[in-house]
Write the structure tokens for this entry.
Amino acid sequence: MKKIILILAILSTIGTMVAQNVKISGNKFTVDNSEIWFNGINTPWHLFGDFGRHDFEPEWWSNEFEKYKQNNINLARVWVHMSGEFSPNIDATGFVDGTNDIFWDHMDHLMNVSEENEVYVMPALFSFDITKDGYATTAEWRKWIQSEANIQSYIDNVLIPMLERYDNRTYLLAWEICNEPEWMFENSEHGPQEFNDVQKMHAMLAAAIHENSTKFVTTGSAAPKWNSPIYDDWGDYEGNMFSDEALSAAINNPNAFLDFYQYHWYPWQSEWMSSPFTMTTAEYDVDDRPVIVGESEGNDVCDKYVCQTVSEMYESAYTNGFDGVCAWKTPQNDGHGTFENIAEATNNFYNNHPNLIYPIGSVLVPATGVTLSDDSVIIEESKSIKLTASLIPSNASDKRVTWESSVPTVATISSGTITAILEGETIITVTTNDGSFIDSCVVTVIKREPACANPSSIVLPHKVDGEGEFCWQTSADLSYINSWNTDIIEINGVDITNTYTNSFPDKIDGLYNIYYKGSYDWSHIEVISSDLKSISHDAISNSTDIIIYPNPSSDVVNIKNTINVSSYTILNATGTKVAFKEIADCNSIEIPVSAYSTGSYFVKLQYVDGSVNTKKIVIK
């Protein structure tokens, strides 16, 4: 009798696990014929390149995935080889002969904690770091990517054994070939590598995965312009470089294709291309298969292109046809997001769409109507106001809605946020995806009295700390404005209170009018110009403040007012020293940063009297 009970228990367990396998149906992921949406997070590393390191900490990974389950996170994106320094084994010629034994122990642990907590995992095999200057094995990996024989050595000696070892893992969603591979052929610190070599590497690995595994294949495209046909006319190496046709042609193999696409997005991109939080997969012309936002800002963003909380970004991505979001965070907090920020978003999304996150056993509840929080609103030009759409019933399974403004030149609508443009009237409508139920709100936009009366001209850079109310004016082009603990900061009527932003509204008559109001001694604003010639030499000479520009930077950081500084040290986000230099008594320092990985760093300035001044820089 015990044997029968045991057999039944095993069969029951197997049945449950099989039921959790994800399939692709059209442009959606499904489980047991029900749609699943990936309420995800990035877990790129704990120690950077964890798998194969002797100081790997299994307990950290166990605790991390437990937190995910507690906060309704159902997908983690994890980096495996990363820069290639710890795994796999690569020789001076770029040949890969395998990997160390502990690598498999560490990967086993990842798969185990994934299943124990019912959190799907998407391992990214490589990152662009493999060919970037500054790593111990950079030269070897450049030889690897330039040789089909070397790529095949990785496929034979590492990839296929890994595919076979983990193909029965229920919560293994997909293999990601590379994190942001485009930087390899875009940026000089990578050589750069040849576009065709990067594309061919993807084709070879994609085909090998399809031929030796039942799991999906994707890659982590750095921006939509490399994974959407609407950008085909931007240049030879832009557009959809990962289309089925492009990859299969690269190696003449029909198995070289991606099962779903993956876009990465950060606020700097919005100046050139629309974000997944304001544009649909259909508008990107990639709605023939699932698309997820595999990496995105884990902080609230508010600039002239996107003004959304992390929670709103997850909702917007869902509304726009994307099939999941994994916002960015690292244990060291590089300034682009924290677990706490992202957990608030994943819990909010789960509360709105529980059946999408855990579809097994769920019952679909149809929508029967929708109501808006306001029938009419009056709003001043340049101001924003939030409308809330409430579905009927409140537990309707499909909460997707479409927003529309009848006169977008008067006011626009994005994920429920109305932004007033010009005086006039428009009608905002919301339509449910399920049942096409509609409600509307009349929006009246009125002229706005400028907050800045009789502004005073300022010379940039300009910084103020403390209580006060001021109106300033400048004709200079701006690099960024940063503020904290203020009551309000406006630039030409656009609210940018307590944010860092490098996106600005248009000038009015060639000028920026900046309004500042702060109620505390620790209220702060800094206004920095992008035109270094606009920085007054007298302002620099007569100021005791350290001036850093450009910041963020991808090339060189300049530091002004460094008289009596004897040396500087650069520390990464974990406090590890990455550079040190003694300097002569001078007014400025030029620090090259192109060799460093993206993220937050600290510059510690040592003065001749022994005192220290530490400043934060961001490398993009």
